[in-house]
Amino acid sequence: MSLNLEELEQVLLSHLKSPEVREPQRQVLAPRAALKAREPNVQPVVQDPVDLAVGFINEIVSETRSLGTHRLDSSILRTIVLCLEAVEKNDPILHISKTLEVCKVFISSGMLAEPRSLLEHLFCSKTQKHSPSLEDLIGGYEFAGFGPKLDAEYIMVVLELILALRVHNISTRFPDTIIEKTSPLIPSLDRQQRLKLFTLLSQFCTVEQTPESLKLRYYTLMYLEDADTEFLLATILHFERVCDASVYSSTADMFYKLCSSWAQSQQSLRLLEFLVYKYRQLKPASCTLRWEAMICQPVVPTALDDHISYLLTTLDVSDTNDRRILLKALELERPIANESFFAASVCRVIKRLDFNVKPDQQLVLALLEVSKNLTPSLNVYDMTTIMLKDLDPLVHSGFGIKTLSLMTEVLKHQNQPKRLRNFSNLLFHFGGKLLTKHETEALRCWHKCLGVEDILVEQNTDEFGQLKNKVERMLNMLIETEKYTQSYDIILHVFQSFEQVHLGWEVEKYQDELTNTFGVLFKLIARMIVRMDYKLPVKFFGVCDKTRAFVTIELIKILTAMKPSRRDQISALIVQVKNELHDNGLFLYFLSSISMIIEFGLALKSIEALNFETNSVMSGYRDIIVCHIYLLQCCAQMDEELLMKSLAAALSWAKTKRAKVSVYELEVLTMVVRVLNYSDLTDYASYLLEVARQNADFGDSDLKLKIEAASLKLQLGLPNDALELLGEMPSNALEAVRYKMLKTECHVLLKHDTAREECTELLSLFKNEQLQLSKQSSKLDVSKLLMLAAGVSVLMSLFHREKNKIESVLNLKQSIRVLQSVMKNFLVTDGSSIEIDLCHKNMLKMQFVSSMLQAYSSLAVMMLELGLAKDFEYYEAEIEKVLTHQSCVVLKSKYFFKLAKHHVYKNDLSRAKEFLEKGTRYAQQMRFESLQVEFEKLTAYELFYQTAECSDVHVIRDKVDLFFRLLAEHEIDGGKFYQQVVYELKLGRLLVNEKEFVAFLRMFLPLNGKEKTSRVETAVTKIKEMIFETVNQDLENIFARDSVVVMKEGVMDNLYAACIRECAKFVNEPRLVSEDISKGAISVLLASGASLRSDLDSLLLRNELMRYESIEYDRKLNLAVESMRQLVPLVCQPDYQVSATQMHNLPSVLPSNWVTVCLDLDMSSGCLLLTRYGPKQDPILLKLPLERHLIGRHASFGSAVQELEAIIQESDRTTRIEVTSLVKSRADRANWWAQRKSLDRRLKQLLWEIDSHWFGCFKGIFGRLVFEKDVVEETRVSLERILSKEVGHSIELGTFETELILQLDLQLESATSDVEDWFQHIQISDEADYRRLFLAIEPELQRVRPRSTVDHTVLVVSPECVKLPWESVPFLRNRSVSRMPSIKMLVDLLIEHEKHLNLGISVATGYFVINPGGDLKRTETNFTEIFASRCGWEGIIGSRPSEEQILQGFQKDLYVYVGHGGGEQYIRSKTVKSMAKLPPALLLGCSSGKLKLQGVFKPHGTVYNYLMGGSPMVVANLWDVTDKDIDKFTLHVLEKWGFSGPSGCDIGHSIAQSRDVCVLPYLNGAAPVLYGIPFKIRNEL
């Protein structure tokens, strides 16, 4: 358009104001009018105002039809009105046409006010009426008679407006008006207009349901060609809704006309038959309408109450058309007059339908839709449900879902659980069948199924189990078909349902219910997690945080139990929970809980993470959760600060009164108690447990806590308290074993007579099949069983400790083997499988460490008891290893102090000091106070200061005494809290026995305990004081201590006898005590000077037992067969004590020309104790004071030993490579030899002083000659006579004194001093002329002739005496001398090898090991020819032998080792000691015969190993020697022995004759010694 809107308005306004009016064209089809009416988009050529107006109207109409009404603002609307006015002024017909056209556009666009205004304006302009109604508008179309079509258009526009306005308050005459106004027009309308008109009329009929509008329907049907079924059915429904007495009068005529019209046009009245029957029923008597003529069937149907019932009974549903009619009828909402009849009809119809046919499905749905509001619909639903069972869901799942959903919607408010359950089952069944074919439909079915289950749960929460079961089955099928993601919503659904059902439950009850409800579901989800390649989102585990957390906890439990390890999946779950949970307290509880399930790294960035929100669901558990988190961190870092915080939180929880304690709280309490216990804070643990039990009701769990409390009491040394706690035995097998173990331990500690019976019953429990490892349900239970078994073995060791020490040690070793199995299988894993959860693994680690320390410490104590230093060292080292790999400062400090004491026992004071410093350092780091640590610290320092003879010993001793004084009142010098713990638990009872032992050590001379009286009055200190007083009662005689005492047979003074009887009561005390008291008894015996033979034999037997007992225990332990497969000992072993009664057989088995002398040292007096055994002679016991002459540099035993050690140490120094490498010139060599020979002279001098100053005349006790008894007696009488005459008074001699002087070699240089010593012994004053006396008796001594000479002397050397080379003391140096550790071992050898004493041994076969280290080439050259060329001999030369080769060598007649040491580096000592019978052995290496002396322990070394292994003869070196000298010695021995030369003497004489071939006859020649029997070589020819 060329003009804009404003310009157009101006043109139109000017036109309207102009008086000029064009003559309107009357022709209907005038060119311009036709142009404008039919071609609105064609612009007129002449641009007059009317043309402009029409053009504008056409443009707006076109735009509105295509673009909508968004451009129709008020200015355009105003312009349209001006345009219409302009057109109306010049062309009324065109004005009407354009007005109607604009109105239609406005109405279709939803603009209703404008068309109504235009129509009203049009009506008013033609009729001159104002404010017309809609009814006025419908009747006012006859304006100028422009033709029926235009009139019809007008009416249709008005009808459209009325429909659009949805007017409901029109008058009842309105339909009649429409009928009246439209009837004349109908014949002139074309088909399209007619269709449009009656479509509008049919729509109009639905505006209101009145008889008048029904009449309009009938009118419409009369003229509506091919009326559709929907309209007909709607008409019938209209009739049903308005049917009353008045409907007939108002509508019958019209309906009758309709029927007549249809009949004339031969249209079927079938759909109208229902109405015909109804009008026939309603027909009044006065009516003349013949309804019968309209009905084809003479029989009137019975179901005329409502149309649907009529159709159900009259239509053939198998007929497609009838089914369609019925379906259409059902789609219309209509009243049901007879619901029961209707329901029955529906059931009959449904029964005839085929649910697998789609049209029938539609009909079913329609019938159900109609039935849903009817009371009797249950029967319909039942029938439908039955029919649905045969439905093929693969084809018709949608129908099934719709049908069941429709029925569910109806029944969900009617309390029909059984019917809903059937619906749910069907849906579940459909989903199962569809899953592999139509996944989406399957899931639809299942979600609908779960919806039905939700309804059931809402009605009755007990139905939740059915929902859960269905979910489990769904999930199982989804997993099997690998449709994992499809299961997420199902999982979420069931947890949401659970949350709804259990809304508001207390958190513990909620978690328990969740756990108990979803056991199977959790397993299925876990299985799905394992199979998935991606994470399962935690958000599908419910909506609530607590549900997600608790579900994840249960899943982790299951994943943990799976094999192989599922660590990745578990870690992913933990990370997700960390990110998903917003409740910090709940997250901490989650961490705490999963720590009881799986091992994982617990790392909280900050300790502030422990803060709980006030609204946390776990706020009621704050203290116990915080306690556990601190505990976990403590176990990871072993930080005492964290452990203290954990204890503080636990005490806060324990002090709160509680009516009930949850399983979680019980678990955490148990854990913190055990961690404290395993951290050696047992007193704190016991206190915490007592407080908790006082303030809470633990219900059935209290039995478990009583057992825990009893265990703590036992570890605190309170068996009576523990026994009171042990009431009823628990039913659980593992707990029952623990209960029985604790009860048995109480009986053992209390020394009840029933202890053995209790132990037997305890061991019998392990025969129960439930306690087999293979029967345990989890790795955790296996570990618990193993730890119990280890504990039982420790208990059995305790039971056997006093009466069967061998079994006690074996029990402890068995315990350690079990513990090592725990470490190997549970603590040191490769991570491939999840064995034990974090909490229990942490506790297991701590329990393992505690148990290992306990077991190793007990073994160390047992080795101390047995005197076995080497094993003691081993277990000591193991304790140190265990401490190295753990970080508990309490344990470290306690055991380092124990190790310090252990090293004091070994006399290793430098190492003891190191451990004291370590223990002190860790004690300073301790945050906890500890009674045990304080005790160990104080007593360790006191023992160290005492042994090291520090001046501060009295200061530390006062602290120890103060400690015990406070403890007696259950007090301690510490913090208030710990004072409360000590006081309430009465911990002063703990260390009573320890106090007694401390008092004993102060009087224990081997550890420099020099107290003669004790501040602590105990049985041991009393007997010690009694011994001291008895032995030293004769101190007024200043010479009494230096007097030689020779025991005589006679009656002992009562004072001495009483003391000895008291000493006998201590034989079963610990070794240190019993041996010390036994040695004291011997001192008393010697102080008495006389005793009955029985008393002497008894004490000598005890003395022998002290020598032999440790060796026998060592041998037994090595021979013991240890059960490697048993968890616990099979039975209680009978009592076993080492016996040495065979020593009484020595005089009877000793060869006639042999003498045995026992060398012992009295530590209190420093005297040598010599016991001589001769063939068929009673033993002679004498005490030989070493300082009786007070001359010589080395008068005391200790100084002699120190001198020997200094000589050997200096000798070793001179042979070291760093010294010998400097010897290059002749002068260097001369200087080196000068040093060596000087040492040789020093050793010779030392041995000469021992000979001269120690033994003097008493060297005769060693026996050199054998005299007849009558000769001795005759000589005694002669000597008494001569000496009495010479001194002027009577001299009495005994047989012993006579033999002493007879045994002296008067040709020796020392003869004069020896005779003088003899004169002093027989109490001839030194004022006498000893030389004159000697000259007087010499002829008599020269006259006496011995029967024979002593061929061999056996020295039974006590541990204190083993270092000295007694064999090289001048009076023994040229004699055949051998050593033995004990008389018992000597007797055994003499009995076993009796035939070899005279015949000798065979050396036809033998095994040699020469220079195995490869560095003694000269030695190799010297001996290769001798041994390698010998027939029947084999061996190794110049290379390292295997243990198996040496064992084969032990099968030969003789074993020879020539190399470094004694060959112990090539064969284990245990292997050697375990041999049943070893051959004679020549161990010719450096120090092969050296015995290691370590404090209070018995000596040990390679040579003892061979003796224990049954070797009857061993040659070895006491110290390091040079290879050249010892090679010369060895070659000479072999020649003299007859091995490499003609038949010779026995090995003892060979050694004696070979010492001087050495360049250094003492420094090297005194080193070789013989142990055992001095065999000679048998002549094999």
TrEMBL record:
Pfam families linked to this entry: Separin_C (PF03568)
Enzyme category, top tier: hydrolase
Key words, A-Z: Chromosome partition, Hydrolase
Domain Peptidase C50 residues, every copy: 1403-1497
GO terms for MF: cysteine-type endopeptidase activity
Reactions mediated catalytically: All bonds known to be hydrolyzed by this endopeptidase have arginine in P1 and an acidic residue in P4. P6 is often occupied by an acidic residue or by a hydroxy-amino-acid residue, the phosphorylation of which enhances cleavage
Keyword Cytoplasm part of the UniProt annotation: no
GO cellular component terms given for this protein: cytoplasm; mitotic spindle; mitotic spindle pole body; nucleus
EC number: 3.4.22.49
Protein name: separase
The species this protein was found in: Ogataea polymorpha
